[in-house]
Design goal:
This is Glycosyltransferase involved in cell wall bisynthesis. The chain is an alpha/beta fold. It is built from eleven helices and ten strands.
Length: 323
């Protein structure tokens, strides 16, 4: 698998699973168009359902290999009705070619792995998948289970933290406006997304002294402390699958306000609150959490290490090959 220039949540997820599978003794490798010989492997696992995978799937099927797909179609930004329309229209020549290839790929898959129940239901209802579908969520770095404090100099206390690339889909702008209006401390951790310099500059231009741009943070121990010291983690995105940020924050007993345009919505998780990704609703929910979060019981149930996530994948693989 190749990666874009910026490592996002999806790429991080796949990389963590890959590394943990190796640690657990599984012979695993990245697919390389020019070097990989599919016949050497028992299982082909595709992370995403991009149509360019079709020749790989066809070749694997010809060789009798087991095929696993993590389709990554679990964002509620696009409604089921939208998918249904495109799928129906793809039956006509020249229309929604991508959906037609989706169906071709899915028809050859032996097992699906989804991040959320929402994504699983979408496969069942829209694509009429009757094959095995396992739900395996995202994990978090082992350091988040550590109880030791890491000393860092913070720009302020009692702050809201937002983590992720700074770009229009992540929707940080209304959060900055709210922070200015209510004089809330806001810590933004992340770097500008590719082609998002204009959006980043807009965010910078309106930010008051109560808004700090921390930049990209790669040290998990520092990230753990940043979450721990915050009173709220906000995910105001226009679209999300299953952000790692949710579990990282909850592991530090910091509540999360997450967009309803996320694949985990509307599952009820202690410490997880939802908001529509529009300024008025974000503002309303921040005020509500401010008054109630001190009484929220935030546990760690359903929060897994990447090692545990890899073991869940191995269980799926073993079942496929009859071990």
């Amino acid at each position: 698998m190749s990666y874009p220039l910026h490592m996002g949540g999806f790429e991080s997820q796949v990389m963590h699973i890959y590394r943990e599978l190796i640690e657990l003794g599984i012979d695993v490798d990245w697919y390389n168009l020019s070097n990989t010989e599919i016949r050497q492997y028992d299982i082909i696992h595709l992370h995403s359902s991009v149509t360019e995978f079709l020749p790989i799937v066809q070749r694997a099927k010809e060789l009798g290999k087991k095929i696993v797909v993590t389709p990554m179609i679990g964002s509620p930004r696009y409604s089921n009705k939208s998918y249904q329309f495109k799928l129906l229209a793809s039956r006509f020549p020249g229309l929604f070619y991508v959906m037609k290839r989706f169906n071709q790929i899915f028809s050859m898959v032996d097992c699906f792995i989804t991040l959320t129940n929402f994504e699983k239901n979408r496969l069942r209802t829209i694509f009429k998948i009757d094959k095995e579908i396992s739900i395996i969520p995202n994990g978090i770095d082992d350091s988040f289970f550590c109880q030791d404090d890491t000393f860092i100099k913070l720009p302020f206390t009692n702050y809201i933290i937002v983590v992720g690339r700074i770009e229009s889909d992540k929707n940080q702008l209304p959060l900055i406006e709210i922070a200015n209006e209510l004089q809330l401390n806001l810590l933004i951790v992340g770097e500008p997304g590719i082609g998002q310099q204009d959006y980043y500059q807009r965010c910078k231009n309106i930010a008051g002294n109560n808004v700090v741009f921390w930049g990209k943070e790669t040290n998990p121990n520092i990230m753990r402390q940043l979450y721990k010291e915050a009173y709220l983690t906000a995910i105001p995105s226009v679209t999300e699958m299953l952000p790692l940020v949710i579990f990282e924050s909850l592991s530090q007993h910091t509540p999360v306000l997450c967009t309803t345009h996320c694949g985990i919505y509307p599952e009820q998780v202690p410490g997880l609150f939802y908001t529509k990704p529009i300024k008025e609703k974000i503002l309303e929910n921040i005020k509500g959490i401010w008054n109630s979060c001190s009484s929220v019981d935030i546990g760690r149930k359903g929060i897994y290490s990447w090692n545990n996530i890899a073991k869940q994948h191995i269980t799926v693989y073993q079942k496929l090959v009859g071990e």
